[in-house]
Amino acid sequence: MAASFKTIATKLIHAGTPRPRVNGAVVTPVFQSSTYEYLGEAKYHDVRYIRLNNTPNHLVLNARLAALENAEAALVTASGMAAISTALMSVLSSGDHLLAMDCLYGGTHGFVTKDLPLYGVSHTFVDGHDTEAWKRALRPTTRAFYVETMTNPLIQIPDLEAVVRFAKAHGLISMIDNTFATPVNFRPPELGFDLSLHSCTKYLNGHSDLVAGAAIGRAELIEGVKHRLDHLGGSLDPHACFLLERGMKTLAVRVRYQNESAARIAAFLARHPAIERVNHPSLESHPQHRIAARLFEGFGGMMSFVLKGGVEAAERLFKRCTIPIIAVSLGGCETLMIRPAAAIHSGLSADERAKSGISDALVRLSVGLESTDELIEDFEQALSN
Questions:
Q1: 168 is annotated as an active-site residue
Q2: 322-356: pLDDT as tens digits
């Protein structure tokens, strides 16, 4: 009988672990085998084979990920984009229409605008708070509503409760990218979201050394995602599964530290005369501060800000800082900074970035595990005249 664990900290260590343990091993071994003995499986998708995402390493992660968000099922994938693209393709068909929040991660935006139309799927971008716009955009062919818990890179928070109500009222599948919040701060299935998606590359692994993704949610939807993923081939290597399981064990302590550190850094930057605007939900000036305070258990380690001197000031900050690394990605032990317009959102046109509110001078900051005091001191010297 599988053990039942109450708190996320305990689930991160023990949920999904085989009982009895494999030869008594405390840590799940790496099952570096592509092929397994046939045991009479009646269905293709149940045959034990590495591409079918059902090795022992996959199964431990799937069970643990589902437990973290109190969902029925989960599926680990080869990358965050593998989870996002496969999930969208599993719920949308030719002739269908997608509602999506108007500020999305660049990879997701590109898939929605450039790839889905090739398969006959249309879309409409809407403001995450304008419920009347949602109604106007609704079509008889609308099948799903896609949002992000906290948008990349503006850290906006949609009206999450309204999204779930709207989706249920109109028979839509509600989908959310929960990468920035993590299951420590927010668990979408508890609010009623049908599918929660993650780039496990980021916080869930937390060590900047692998690429992985996950889909979490209702069992029948996850089964559909698995069937599509089995055909597309986006399975995660068993050794990467092992590394992800190891990284996830420290998620709670990492994220809670990053929550606190980011809030202090955001407060410092918001007071600094060289900073024009800071986007972090811990700040009372953030337009969705009250939503975050009500729904989240922490405000997260991600923020963005604009310096008063524009791009030149941002580049000067990058050269002067000694601790943050100028790099893409996020959620690791190291503090990372980047200008989204020059990197992660460079695939969008200037007009598309402007419509999304992503200026060339915007800086995205992923707060790591370094000393908060030392990071603030570093920013202070880098911002001095």
A1: no
A2: 999 999 999 999 999 999 987 666 666 677 777 76
CA dist 28 to 20, 107, 123, 142, 209, Å?
11, 32, 42, 42, 19
pLDDT of 121 > 80? The answer is yes
Q: pLDDT > 90: what percent of the chain?
A: 90
Longest dimension (CA), the chain: 72
Q: Which of 308, 310, 288, 292 is nearest to 360 (CA)?
A: 310
Q: Is 254 a catalytic residue?
A: no
Residues of the chain with CATH 3.90.1150.10: 252-383
Q: Which residues of 245-281 are buried (b: 16+ CB within 10 A; e: fewer)?
A: bebbbbbbebbbebbbbbbebbebbbebebbeebbbb
Q: pLDDT by residue (tens digit) across 143-159?
A: 999 999 999 999 999 99
Q: Which of 202, 226, 254, 339 is catalytic?
A: 202
User: pTM for the whole thing?
Assistant: 0.95
| CATH annotation of 252-383 | 3.90.1150.10
Active-site position among 51, 218, 264, 316: 51
Assess whether 105 carries a catalytic annotation.
yes
pLDDT digits (tens, 9 = 90+) for 14-24: 999 988 898 88
For the chain, state the CA radius of gyration: 21
Question: Could you give the CA distance from residue 54 to residue 33 in angstroms, rounded to a whole number?
Answer: 11
Strand, helix or coil for residue 174: strand
Q: Based on the residue annotation, tell me whether 51 is a catalytic residue of this protein.
A: yes
What's the CA gap between 2 and 26, in Å, rounded?
Answer: 16
CATH architecture of 8-248: 3-Layer(aba) Sandwich (3.40)
Q: Around 319, how many Cα atoms within 13 Å sit in the side-chain half-sphere?
A: 7
Q: For residue 35, is pLDDT > 50?
A: yes
Annotated catalytic residue, options 11, 64, 105, 159: 105
Please name the residues in contact with 182: beta carbons below 8 A apart, sequence gap of 6 or more. 203, 204, 251, 255, 300, 331
Residue with tokens 């500020």: 103
